[in-house]
Amino acid sequence: MEKVQSGYVIEFYSNSCLVRIIDADINCIAIKDVIVGDFVNIEIVQDSKQVKGIILSREPRISVLEKKDEIKTKAIAANVTHVGILVTPEPKTSTEFIDKWIVTAILSGITPFIINNKIDLNQDDNYQSKLNIYKNLDIKLIEISAKNKSNLDELIKYLESDCVVFVGNSGAGKSTLTTSITGKKIKTNVLSNNQGVHTTSISSLYETNKGTKIIDSPGVRDLPIAGWDKEEIIRGFSEIFLISKDCKFNDCNHINNEGCAVKAALNDGVISESRYNNFINFRDNNENE
Ligand SMILES: Nc1nc2c(ncn2[C@@H]2O[C@H](COP(=O)(O)OP(=O)(O)OP(=O)(O)O)[C@@H](O)[C@H]2O)c(=O)[nH]1
Ligand SMILES: [Mg+2]
Ligand SMILES: [Zn+2]
After folding, report:
1. Would you tell me which of 44, 79, 253, 263 could form a disulfide with 37, CB atoms 3.0–4.6 Å apart?
2. pTM for the predicted model, two decimal places
3. How far is the C-alpha of 284 from the C-alpha of 223, rounded, in Å?
4. Alpha carbon distances (Å) from 204 to 11, 136, 162, 267
């Protein structure tokens, strides 16, 4: 075995990690600034008992998902290309949840898209109109049943060679979906049994035979919107950001300033009410999240 090899971190424990190299998974001592999804160079150390690795360096990242609060920023997953937001009728997904993830992804340089999961269940008019908000935006929407494995082809094709994080409320079907597309058994929770006991305690990266990487990390479960610069939030609402360029004043508050193009578009129904409300709330009240 070559002494120095490159690979990527597929599993992360508290002080060690597993690095996948061309023909093996090597246990390494975790070092600072390396997280699941990172590409690293390792040195193989072999004694009579075992093969281990020492991480020598990590490659620059194309993106990083971070958990930010007032005090610190913690990197959670590296080199993610897509955030797949699971939206379900049961448990109900709020537009706040959806928009929070769209904003987080866009501001992290990651492509967000929506997965309408559980299409085998009844999806009433209310639910359909929630989805319609997003159908009118420039954002991919894929309809599936993770449990029944319906329509997974479109999703698999969309994510070919990419690296995705699935996000959704507890019970939305993240583990079921990961199992369905990797063929590997991932622990699932039943809806009635989600009393705060989480199934995953380490970050893991799973792979499909189409070269798709799926990162599952407990760190992304309760990512707050706080921590982003107030001025940045609008960039996460692309359609609002675009229209805001037509506001009369550069420093328009988009609430009650004269000549506000955003308010005009809201009144004309061009911008949806829930998108507008979430934008204002995230921007102005996010210290409480
Ligand atoms: N009817 C239906 N049920 C589904 C579907 N996908 C998942 N479920 C069910 O929803 C429940 C929760 O699924 P999980 O995959 O454990 O959900 P999760 O998002 O991983 O939840 P946490 O790990 O708690 O965050 C399970 O009982 C699944 O069988 C679907 O497409 N249709
Ligand atoms: Mg799960
Ligand atoms: Zn304005």
Report:
1. 79
2. 0.92
3. 18
4. 4, 34, 16, 45
Q: DSSP class of residue 147?
A: T
Phi-psi region of 39 (alpha: psi -120 to 50; beta: other; left: phi over 0): beta
| Average pLDDT of the chain to the nearest whole number | 90
In angstroms, the CA 190 to CA 108 distance is 31
Q: What is the DSSP letter of 145?
A: B
- Residue 112 CA to residue 15 CA, distance in Å, equals 31
Does the beta carbon of 151 lie inside 6 Å of ligand 1? no
Nearest CA to ligand 1 atom 13: 173
Grouping H, G, I as helix, E, B as strand and the rest as coil, residue 149 is coil
How many Cα neighbours within 13 Å face the side chain of 260?
Answer: 17
Domains of the chain: 4-58 (2.40.50.140), 64-220 (3.40.50.300), 233-288 (1.10.40.50)
Cβ contacts of 141 within 8 Å, gap of 6 or more: 113, 114, 115, 116, 131, 134, 135
* CA separation for the pair 260, 276 (Å, rounded): 13
Q: Which residues contact 95 (CB under 8 A, 6 or more apart)?
A: 130, 133, 274, 275, 278
Sign of CA dihedral 219, 162, 82, 242: positive
Looking at residue 199, its pLDDT comes to: 37
Q: How many Å lie between the centroid of ligand 2 and the Cα of residue 127? A: 23
Q: Look up tokens 């999703």; give the residue.
A: 155
Q: Name residue 46's beta-bridge partners.
A: 51
pLDDT tens per residue across span 153-170: 999 999 999 999 999 999
